[in-house]
Design brief:
With 150 residues, this protein is mostly helical. The chain is built from 7 helices and 2 strands; from the N terminus they run ααααααββα. It has a single domain, classed as dinb family like domain (Four Helix Bundle (Hemerythrin (Met), subunit A), Up-down Bundle).
């Protein structure tokens, strides 16, 4: 594993840990709560963040991707145990993929539908920003939930 990949993997692990802490602070009903129409529950945010991360890791490594992104936004009824298990699986996949990513894969230009081709490093860093954005959404959703509960 290159030092660059090691650094990025550490950053993703930090997001996973903060998502884990958020999930652990809520009960199953709260994990499925949404602040309003067109807004996501914690369960959706965690599921989508992990789905996007795995898709990006596969992209960087040149592995065929089979993602149903839309399904990530239809998640409901996930329990705390489900989401914690998903985060554990995300940790394992992150370790497996990051251990295998080479400098060449970071430099290879990869294409994603509807986006300009970019290097593997670009896609990794872009996805880390995406994960942090959804971590922020997670924290804000919890704040809105707590405010509603009074």
């Amino acid at each position: 594993m290159t030092s660059t990949v090691s650094t990025v993997a550490d950053l993703f692990r930090g997001v996973h840990q903060q998502l884990r802490e958020a999930v652990e602070s809520l009960d199953d009903r709260e994990l499925d709560w949404s602040p309003g129409p067109e807004m996501n529950s914690i369960a959706v945010l965690v599921t989508h963040t992990l789905g996007s991360e795995l898709d990006t890791l596969n992209l960087v490594r040149g592995i065929a991707r089979d993602r149903d992104r839309d399904a990530e936004f239809r998640v409901s009824g996930s329990t705390k145990a489900d989401l914690l298990a998903a985060l554990d699986r995300g940790d394992v996949r992150l370790e497996e993929h990051s251990a295998a990513i080479t400098d060449d894969e970071l430099a290879i230009v990869r294409e994603r539908p509807g986006r300009d081709p970019q290097t593997g490093l670009h896609w990794l860093l872009n996805n880390y920003g995406h994960a942090r954005e959804h971590l922020g959404h997670t924290h804000m959703t919890i704040q809105l939930l707590r405010q509603r509960q009074g």
